Please model this.
Amino acid sequence: MGLGLLLGVALLPTGCAVEKNYANGKVVVLEQRTRDRVKMYIANTPIMSEDPYWTLTIEVNGTRYVGEFLPEANQRELSAGTWKSNDEVQVRLEKKVFYVRRDQGSDAKLVITRKTRISS
Model:
């Protein structure tokens, strides 16, 4: 009984680990955009700055997802050279975000801003 219990405990972590599945997707468009942000007010006049962000539109299983990536920490983390239109990518979908696998194996996390079904 001791050996069976020991073997069961040893295999428990590997049996409970669930890896999210990646689906094949296609890049539709990658765009760099900016939005105005109020930094401060001086005498009721807003002092604005432009904050850059990226939008990535992908198609996965008959649905088009538009995701927004905010390069707060590293401006070069997601650049225009990362993906191009019609590139095949690996995508992991969740409820409010999706992850796109990069060439080196890491994932880019994008917040879903729009989701539409593609009519056939």
In short: The chain has one domain: 19-117. Residues 14-18 have pLDDT under 50 and may be disordered.
